[in-house]
Input
Amino acid sequence: MSNPSAGTPSKAKAGSSQPSEASFKRKRGVFQKDLQHMMYGFGDDANPFPETVTLVEDIVVEYVTDLAHKAQDIGSKRGKLSVEDFLYLIRKDTPKLNRCTELLSMQEELKQARKAFEVDEEKLATLE
Amino acid sequence: MDQQPPPQPSPSTVPAALTPTPPNATASSSDPSQQQPQQQPPLSQPPTPSPQQPQLSQTSQIQQQPSQPFPSRTPSTFPSPNLNPKPLPKPQQPPQPRPALSAPQPRIAATFLRPWQQQSSHFINSSSSSPSVTSTPAPTLSSQPRGSINLGAPSSHSSPSPPSPSPSPSQPSPFSGSFGHSFTGASSSNVSQSRPPMQGMTIGSHSQMRPPGISAQHQQRPLQSSLRPPSLPNSQSPATQNFQGHGSMRVSAVGSSTPSTLQTSQVHNQPWLSSGSQGKPPLPPPSFRPQINSPSLQQRSHIPQQHHSSPTVPQQQHVSSPQLPQSSSLQPQEHFRQQMSPTPGPPQSLPHQQPPRAQGSVNQKPSSLATVQPSTVQLVNQNKAALTETDESGGKILTKRSIHDLLNQIDPSEKLDPEVEDILVDIAEDFVDSITTFGCSLAKHRKSDTLEAKDILLHLERNWNMILPGFTGDEIKTYRKPLTNEVHKERLAAIKKSIVVSGVNAKGNLGKVGANILGSPNVKI
Output
């Protein structure tokens, strides 16, 4: 699941929406293009109904919003919002949790690889 | 019939009078009829079409009393049902002895009619005048019913009565003629059937008219359902159907009358009220509107006529203000009228009202509630009372058929006992009722007089743990940081400070181990 990746944008959204009390006018069709491809991947028609896409987008936005609110509730006790809060919230959903941990570990590996790459370059430079 | 005497002084009062008449119809069936005939003789005198027209418009709100609009025509028999709250006749009405009206009423009620009037008259006079009603209706019907509301008259009935309309040309309202034809046919047919048309008319009356009207309702329902395909589920159909049927019959009259009658019927929730759908057409103007606007050309033609009556509406509204039930009914009527004038108003109005009626399914409710209806909240309250009755009478939200369909979706081979189906229907109705009630309280808390989707959604989300995606609109729920007291923050800071201090001391005194132990709580915090 794209939770970890979605988690970051959701964090950003939650952060932006927190300060103001007024409800935001949310944009419709934020995920429209991406969702169409995803729905096709999960078995829907290549060109799904716009109403269907809108409904799925509503579901996604509501889910992410709800998750962000709960994470903030937990994070505020700790002081700050962190990745751990989100992982705690999806602990009961095993596939999501596994996917999240996998993506996070991949992210760490990539970081290490980039770091190692830079170090190699430096070594080459020094060798030369 | 408190309502009847007060309206007399002014035309506006007339509508008020009319509305009360239905409820009083049973109680003082004679009174309205009495007043009507009294009104009629005076009414007959003022032949001017203008008074008649306003009356006609008012009649839409009317209560069964057929009289007033007809006064010109049927001086003799019309008890001048409060249908046409004519300004002139009104004042005269009160002085007229009610008991006198009783005699002519059965006839008049029958004749006038409006199909629903007939029914109401039937109810009122059910014991006595039913035979007389049936006989007389033809002549009187032609005159009055035309102008008034053809609430109950099913379209099928309208055809046979061409001859009867002819006498009604005297009727001021232009549409009356057309209505009359349809109405007369309906009325005549209705007379025999009297019950059904009346019942069809108002949801409120619906409940009241139940026993006789159920058959009529069913008749009307198919008409209405065909008219209004979109929104309503079975449960809603009876209410809407009634309106549709009414609308088709008489656009102008119905619009105003139905909402009033509906409300009145609902308000009173009295069985005899159903017969009294009389003056006040049941509320569901919004539902009525879409039906009227969309489905039939007839209605459209009549709509402009209603506009004529629209000026009378404000008068009526004023009148009704003193009377709660009337006011509520009037408001919807007024809204209805306003809506009518813009014509094919958004079909949303229909669904909106209906859900409040607790006739729509929960799923439909959020969508239907989306549109704003100012009087919805009031209507809902009234409807709730009426709805319970209607549900019992046949205005079901859920029919057995839909239960079977649901069951097939779950498990095609499953069977349910009839008692189980009955109780499921009851549970569904109670659920819709409670949801609507709470949604209305939330809307009121929001300082709004319109039941919207967000009220229902909030209630379901908080109390029923049901999340319905797709109805939130363009708003995102705002996040509120958990409120923390200053005192609590200070205490936490003090604890941290003490830990740090003790940790430092421990480091100095106890060495590394102590520091580590003391240090960990800091980390956690």
